[in-house]
Amino acid sequence: MGLFTKRVKRLGTDRFRITLPTHEAELLRTLLPQLRGLLTTGLSENDPSLNRLFPTAYANDPELDAGYQALVRDELLEKRFASLDVIETLLAEADGGEVSGEELSAWMRAINDLRLVLGTRLDVGEDDDPSDIDPEDPEAQAWAIYHYLAMLVSVIVDALTEEL
């Protein structure tokens, strides 16, 4: 990951610095409201790209699954909106700056949610290799964003677990 790891650095106990290049911060500023909109409207429209964010608990029992979804969906949605709030606030102030471990965890959750939705839309599989992306493919940009989000999640996880 090389220079990519410098985007998130542990400063000490429960303090981290996020340093994103301007174009990456702008990309996130563009994607996060799109995810918020999808969470707001997509659930009522049963958008399949949200399946990874609200997985089926009882695939063979729709009635039991509906009960499960009724119990957890609002809480999951609330937590997702809270994570989006944290990252959007910090991105509005600068390109991240200094954050607590809790705030960095919110970054990780929101970015991973973006990755999961995009991965579902791209039908990402276990064997997909970023070096196999054809630059002429109409979805090449979406694939590049997907892999960027995956790398950013990985760097955040590394920073959060560095002292474990």
Question: Can you tell me about this structure?
Answer:
This protein has 164 residues and is mainly alpha-helical. The chain has one domain. It contains four helices and three strands. The chain has a three-stranded antiparallel beta sheet. A hairpin with a 2-residue loop joins strand 1 and strand 2.
Q: What can be said about this structure in brief?
A:
With 164 residues, the protein is mainly alpha-helical. It has four helices and three strands.
Note the run of SSEs as H and E.
EEHHEHH
Treating each run of at least 4 consecutive H or I residues as one helix, how many helices? 4
Measured distance between first and last alpha carbons: 20 Å
Query: Structural class of the helix and strand makeup?
Result: mainly alpha
Describe the sheet with the most strands: 3 strands, antiparallel
Poorly predicted ranges: none
Total DSSP E strands: 3
Domains, number: 1
**Share in helix:** 55-70%
